[in-house]
């Protein structure tokens, strides 16, 4: 073997929290070099990406708009990931949530009253939860690997959505564009600050963060989830019902992703379109790990991720960079985070170097 | 039994001399200037508790670990043992505690694999195996597949593997821990014959009676240092134990045997087909455990203990609900949590990764099974203060050595963690405690503390079932005894009315000992 990883004796809690920060700094340095190689001033480029988008009130408001769905998905993933259930399907759950919410919304365009929006949001939550429960059912009854099933369900969800906007949900007066009709006023999320798009979705997301924090750190259910994730046999010994915990965690995670989808269609979009998510559900996976599965960490990480999305758009406009720059940033961040974690927990040794040394000693 | 020093050859240099061997692991000085000398034909005991440094020293001899400093002399010449292959070339053979045999291959094929190029022709090797095994009284058919062998036979394969080579020093790591008393006697006959022929034997153990019966010389380690050097024949087990544990630790005492009152656990015709293809099926198990008594189940590992324990703890449920009965009714179908609510507490065999979550604090591990003692509110919230004080009580009352309740379970030593787990179960005031191998791998001081805690719980009126591979332990604490063999349970007798021989026969499946009646007491 060329390189060998040896576990370090003790784990440093400080370093575990520092690792995401380190990953962030390394990402900045690498992308700076990348910009330089593209013939741009790295400082200016980074400033354009990470500062300009949020330098005014409108920008700050947009920041919240982008962060809300990411935060909702990621905070739900924190729960399933704690149980070591690998739900990679937040994206699909978000899409189905948006789809189901829209199918209710287009039927109540004329309706008035305060029940309209809650009904639509509830439909979104149910849609996301059902989509996640499908994977939970496959896991608990057929022992099907949830990583594979949730990824596959993502594509099914996307195709269902595309089919719906080209078919049953298409706006009859929409000149054949693949879009639903615009929702009625009672179906839209209330805007929090006038002249911006920031809507109540961010409040839902913040409430979810608080609720999940209580669940994980204060409730016995959260304790059972953590035990299940860390040590299956101990959970069995204590009599925790592992199948039920899989159902519950998937329900929470899918429901929150569905709410994120409903928030998008009733918030900034106001109708169902094929592109309701630029990969929020996938970005949420990075966010959940970047935030160390801790509610506060996830809150900060989702703000960073939202900023990267906005920065990508800004780079397109101001720097003539392709939109792929967002994916590049996300990839770098995840790569450095994983690398930092490995190096914090393991020591790299070069066995061929030391064995050469010992043979040399023996020759002498 | 006589001990004659067969290999007393004054003109020859000793077979192996180790001088001030030191080995440092991160955070642990495993060997601190240890000396060891083994003569030709000598049976030498290496004694010490877990963590005393026995394994490290033995691995240094076998070339698995390199010492940081110190000198090794083999037959008078200074050597640096590079790796196990080098050790084997010198004539060192080693029988590990956990065998490394391939189940689906024959004995010959297994030995050929271990020997590598030296194996030669398989037919010739099979003949050699047959001759060697007959010569030392360890009958083996070389064509048998390993999966069909008993644990004792597997050990013979490992010993024969060493003997087919030209061997001068045989190292045995805790060889008797997996054997019945009868098998131990057979093993000792083999070892004595080997020694008479001039082979040195390093016998690693913590069973003092065996060392006294078998060994010419003993080296005793404590905390990585040499703590004694003696001739076992001239010592008592108690004096050797003192050298092993030091002066502060209280050691074994006798416990009064009692009779229980009402039946708490009643098992009738418990039959369960194992889900694991290599598991053991339980066949019609009948067992009563009374309140206020300790029942012990002896047996060689892998005879259905795990399956029986899982069925009793509720980790596996049984179809016939009536097969397991508590005073409140049948419980065979209930999950562990529900059985706990009816008075059960359970100490599993695995401490880390079943009895306790390695990456959780002691406080969280106290909650793991302690949640039924009012630590969770009706609304499902954890009472953090209550949990903290529960954990503190366990730590104080059972003298768990730890910096605090926030320490992770994995950073505790085996004995300390076991005290914590036993404490956690006992503090819940169970009416029935089931404990698997309660002192396995635990140092003598902690073992004594655990035994005392079990006796105390018994005296408070709880029913206790102990499953163990350590017969001495079972005789020490059990009020009634039986053995399990291949998923069947032997008759259950009061401890004073049975004998080591009888339990040994039960362990091999001979349950009808009345016909072999030879009342040895």
UniProtKB/TrEMBL annotation, chain A:
<dbReference type="GO" id="GO:0022857">
    <property type="term" value="F:transmembrane transporter activity"/>
</dbReference>
<protein>
    <submittedName>
        <fullName>ABC transporter permease</fullName>
    </submittedName>
</protein>
<keyword id="KW-0472">Membrane</keyword>
<keyword id="KW-0812">Transmembrane</keyword>
<feature type="transmembrane region" description="Helical">
    <location>
        <begin position="245"/>
        <end position="262"/>
    </location>
</feature>
<feature type="transmembrane region" description="Helical">
    <location>
        <begin position="150"/>
        <end position="169"/>
    </location>
</feature>
<dbReference type="GO" id="GO:0005886">
    <property type="term" value="C:plasma membrane"/>
</dbReference>
<feature type="transmembrane region" description="Helical">
    <location>
        <begin position="321"/>
        <end position="344"/>
    </location>
</feature>
<feature type="transmembrane region" description="Helical">
    <location>
        <begin position="93"/>
        <end position="109"/>
    </location>
</feature>
<keyword id="KW-1003">Cell membrane</keyword>
<keyword id="KW-1133">Transmembrane helix</keyword>
<dbReference type="Pfam" id="PF02653">
    <property type="entry name" value="BPD_transp_2"/>
</dbReference>
<feature type="transmembrane region" description="Helical">
    <location>
        <begin position="282"/>
        <end position="309"/>
    </location>
</feature>
<feature type="transmembrane region" description="Helical">
    <location>
        <begin position="115"/>
        <end position="138"/>
    </location>
</feature>
<dbReference type="InterPro" id="IPR001851">
    <property type="entry name" value="ABC_transp_permease"/>
</dbReference>
<feature type="transmembrane region" description="Helical">
    <location>
        <begin position="198"/>
        <end position="216"/>
    </location>
</feature>
<feature type="transmembrane region" description="Helical">
    <location>
        <begin position="21"/>
        <end position="40"/>
    </location>
</feature>
<feature type="transmembrane region" description="Helical">
    <location>
        <begin position="60"/>
        <end position="81"/>
    </location>
</feature>
């Amino acid at each position: 073997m060329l390189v060998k990883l040896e576990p370090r004796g003790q784990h440093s809690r400080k370093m575990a929290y520092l690792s995401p920060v380190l990953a962030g700094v390394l990402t900045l340095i690498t992308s700076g070099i990348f910009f330089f190689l593209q013939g741009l001033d790295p400082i200016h480029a980074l400033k354009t990406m990470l500062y300009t988008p949020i330098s005014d009130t409108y920008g700050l408001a947009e920041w919240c708009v982008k962060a809300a769905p990411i935060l909702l998905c990621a905070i739900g993933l924190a729960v399933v990931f704690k149980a070591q259930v690998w739900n990679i399907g937040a994206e699909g759950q978000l899409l189905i949530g948006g789809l189901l919410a829209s199918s209710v919304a287009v039927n109540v365009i004329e309706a008035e009253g305060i029940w309209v929006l809650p009904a639509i949001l509830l439909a979104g939550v149910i849609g996301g939860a059902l989509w996640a429960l499908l994977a939970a059912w496959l896991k608990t009854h057929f022992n099907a690997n949830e990583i594979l099933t949730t990824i596959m369900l993502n594509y099914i969800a996307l195709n269902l959505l595309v089919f719906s906007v080209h078919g049953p949900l298409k706006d009859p007066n929409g000149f054949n564009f693949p879009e639903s009709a615009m929702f009625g006023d009672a179906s839209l999320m209330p805007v929090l600050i006038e002249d911006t798009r920031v809507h109540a979705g961010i409040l839902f997301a913040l409430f979810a963060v608080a609720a999940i924090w209580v669940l994980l750190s204060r409730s016995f259910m959260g304790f059972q989830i953590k035990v299940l994730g860390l040590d299956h046999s101990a959970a069995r010994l204590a009599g925790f019902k592992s199948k039920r915990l899989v159902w519950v965690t998937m329900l929470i995670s899918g429901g929150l992703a569905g709410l994120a989808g409903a928030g998008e269609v009733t918030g900034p979009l106001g109708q169902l379109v094929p592109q309701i998510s630029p990969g929020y559900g996938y970005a949420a996976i990075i966010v959940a790990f970047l935030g160390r599965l801790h509610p506060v960490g996830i809150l900060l990480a989702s703000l960073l991720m939202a900023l990267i999305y906005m920065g990508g758009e800004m780079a397109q406009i101001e720097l003539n960079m392709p939109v792929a720059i967002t994916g590049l940033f996300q990839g770098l961040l995840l790569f450095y985070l994983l690398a930092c974690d490995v190096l914090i927990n393991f020591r790299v040794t070069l066995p061929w170097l030391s064995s050469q040394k010992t043979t040399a000693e023996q020759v002498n | 039994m006589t001990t004659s020093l067969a290999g007393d050859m004054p003109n020859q240099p000793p077979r192996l001399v180790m001088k001030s061997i030191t080995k440092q692991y991160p955070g642990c000085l495993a060997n601190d200037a240890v000396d060891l000398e083994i003569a030709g034909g000598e049976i030498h005991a290496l004694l010490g508790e877990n963590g005393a440094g026995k394994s490290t020293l033995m691995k240094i001899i076998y070339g698995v670990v390199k010492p940081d400093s110190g000198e090794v002399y083999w037959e008078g010449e200074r050597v640096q043992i590079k790796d196990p292959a080098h050790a084997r070339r010198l004539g060192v053979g080693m029988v590990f505690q956990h065998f490394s045999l391939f189940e689906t291959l024959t004995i010959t094929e297994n030995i050929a694999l271990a020997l590598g190029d030296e194996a030669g022709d398989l037919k010739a090797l099979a003949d050699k195996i047959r001759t060697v095994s007959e010569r030392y009284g360890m009958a083996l058919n070389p064509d048998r597949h390993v999966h069909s062998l008993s644990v004792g036979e597997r050990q013979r394969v490992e010993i024969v593997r060493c003997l087919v080579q030209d061997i001068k020093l045989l190292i045995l790591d805790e060889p008797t821990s997996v054997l019945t008393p009868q098998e131990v006697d057979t093993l000792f006959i083999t070892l004595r014959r080997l020694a008479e022929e001039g082979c040195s034997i390093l016998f690693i153990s913590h069973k003092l009676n065996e060392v006294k019966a078998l060994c010419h010389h003993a080296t005793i380690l404590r905390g990585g240092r040499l703590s004694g050097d003696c001739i076992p024949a001239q010592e008592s087990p108690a004096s050797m134990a003192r050298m092993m544990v030091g002066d502060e630790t209280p050691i074994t005492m006798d416990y009064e045997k009692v009779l229980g009152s009402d039946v708490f656990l009643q098992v009738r015709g418990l039959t369960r087909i194992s889900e694991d293809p290599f598991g053991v099926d339980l066949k019609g198990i009948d067992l009563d455990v009374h309140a206020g008594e300790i029942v012990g189940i002896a047996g060689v590992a892998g005879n259905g203990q795990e399956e029986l324990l899982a069925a009793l703890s509720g980790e596996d449920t049984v179809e016939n609900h009536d097969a397991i009965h508590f005073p409140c009714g049948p419980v065979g179908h209930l999950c562990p949590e529900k059985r706990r609510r009816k008075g059960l507490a359970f100490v599993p065999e695995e401490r880390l990764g079943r009895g306790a979550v390695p990456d959780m604090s002691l406080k969280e591990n106290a909650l793991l099974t302690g949640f039924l003692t009012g630590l969770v509110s009706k609304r499902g919230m954890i009472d953090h203060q209550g949990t903290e004080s529960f954990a503190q009580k366990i730590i104080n009352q059972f003298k768990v050595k730890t910096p605090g309740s926030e320490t992770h379970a994995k950073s505790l030593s085996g004995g300390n963690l076991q005290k914590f787990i036993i404490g956690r179960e006992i503090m819940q005031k169970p009416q029935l405690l089931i404990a698997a191998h309660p002192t396995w791998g635990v140092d003598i001081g902690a073992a004594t503390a655990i035994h005392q805690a079990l006796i105390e719980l018994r005296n408070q009126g709880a029913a206790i079932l102990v499953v163990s591979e350590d017969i001495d332990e079972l005789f020490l604490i059990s009020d009634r005894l039986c053995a399990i063999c291949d998923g069947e349970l032997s008759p259950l007798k009061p401890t004073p009315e049975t004998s080591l021989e009888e339990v040994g026969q039960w362990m091999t499946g001979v349950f009808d000992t009345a016909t072999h009646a030879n009342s040895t007491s």
